[in-house]
Amino acid sequence: MNTKEFKTYADKEQFVQGVFSNIAKNYDLMNTVLSFGQDYFWRKFSVKAMNI
C-alpha cells in the first residue's frame, strides 16, 4: 500500500475530500452493479423495518 505524506492538515483534508468527491459520482451505480441489484432490496427492507 502506498502512503502519502502531507505538509499540513488542510492538504490532507483537501486530498481526502477529493477522493470522496470522485467516488460519490459513481457510488450508486457501482453499488448496484457489485451487489447484483441487492442494494435496492436492502434499502427497501431497511426503510420498511424502520417504519419510515
From TrEMBL:
<keyword id="KW-0489">Methyltransferase</keyword>
<keyword id="KW-0949">S-adenosyl-L-methionine</keyword>
<protein>
    <submittedName>
        <fullName>Demethylmenaquinone methyltransferase</fullName>
    </submittedName>
</protein>
<dbReference type="GO" id="GO:0008168">
    <property type="term" value="F:methyltransferase activity"/>
</dbReference>
<dbReference type="GO" id="GO:0032259">
    <property type="term" value="P:methylation"/>
</dbReference>
<dbReference type="InterPro" id="IPR023576">
    <property type="entry name" value="UbiE/COQ5_MeTrFase_CS"/>
</dbReference>
<dbReference type="Pfam" id="PF01209">
    <property type="entry name" value="Ubie_methyltran"/>
</dbReference>
<keyword id="KW-0808">Transferase</keyword>
